Amino acid sequence: MTATSTTSGLKSGANSKVLRLDDLEILHLIPEFSEEEFIEFCLHNPNLKIEQDKNGNLTIMSPVSFDSGSNESEVIADLTIWNRKTKLGKTFSSSTMFILPDGEKRMPDAAWIAKAKIKKLSRWQRKKIARIVPNFIVEVRSPTDKVKDLQDKITNIWIKNGVQLAWLIDPIDKIHWIYRIDGSSEKVEGLTATLEGEKVLPGFKFDLSVLEDEDEN
Q1: Nearest to 3 by CA among 48, 34, 35
Q2: What total number of domains does the chain contain?
Q3: Together in a domain, 55 and 145
Q4: What is the rounded CA–CA span in Å between residue 60 and residue 53?
Q5: Are residues 152 and 174 in the same domain?
Q6: Which band of pLDDT confidence, cut at 50, 70 and 90, is reported for residue 40?
Q7: Among 108, 126, 185, 215, which residue has the fewest nearby CB atoms (within 10 Å)?
Q8: Do the Cβ atoms of 178 and 185 come closer than 8 Å?
Q9: Which residue, 156, 196, 204, is CA-closest to 176?
Q10: Span 137-177, pLDDT tens digits
């Protein structure tokens, strides 16, 4: 991590915000961004994975571990295969940012959006970071993630902004959570269960056993 990589494209200003680097917070480093300036900042720093909360604070996330990258890919692979068969929408990787109604700019580990919602975007809007709420998102816990932080992110950001179904998959503690737009949640323990897409993704199933660490067997 270098200072130059995190400050490229910044403008000076009196109203500064917080830069978060995992557990470290650097106060008064980031000037207040307009939406256009934040997007420009992201484009000037393509090697960084950056999110911005509704208050303007930035979070720069570290790369995931070897196992975590594999776990994320398993979810995206199954979601993509299901979507190719059903042709009900589009799947999105962890590099896709969504601008949410309350101003949060976030990137889940996997996402899916129904075709009817996508059709409301113009071709020009689809070429940029879109102002749209996914129907379904997944957050996969990595070793640097705190469960409470991910739970708060799902309930207070994703679900609050209109995501219909969200999964928190935790291959570390092997306790997973399902969150729904109606405010209900469900805990699933172990890696022998199967998560289902319910009415949001009809027929989609994810077998948690694919996340089992072969070295533990």
Answers
A1: 48
A2: 2
A3: no
A4: 12
A5: yes
A6: confident
A7: 215
A8: yes
A9: 196
A10: 999 999 989 999 999 999 999 999 999 999 999 999 999 99
Pairwise CA distance, residues 195 & 91, whole Å: 17
DSSP letter string, 131-175: ----SEEEEE--TT--HHHHHHHIIIIIITTT-SEEEEE-TTTTE
- Identify the DSSP state of 28: E
Global pTM?
0.85
Distances (CA, A) of 139 to 24, 87, 145, 173: 21, 23, 10, 14
Rg (CA), the chain: 18
Average pLDDT (103-120) is 97
What pLDDT is stored for residue 161 in this prediction?
Answer: 98
Torsion of CA 175, 99, 80, 77, to 10 degrees: -50
**If 0-12 CB within 10 Å is exposed, 13-18 middle and 19+ buried, where does residue 36 land?**
exposed
Which element (helix H / strand E) includes 35? helix 35-44
Reduced to 3 states, what is the DSSP secondary structure of residue 190? Answer: coil
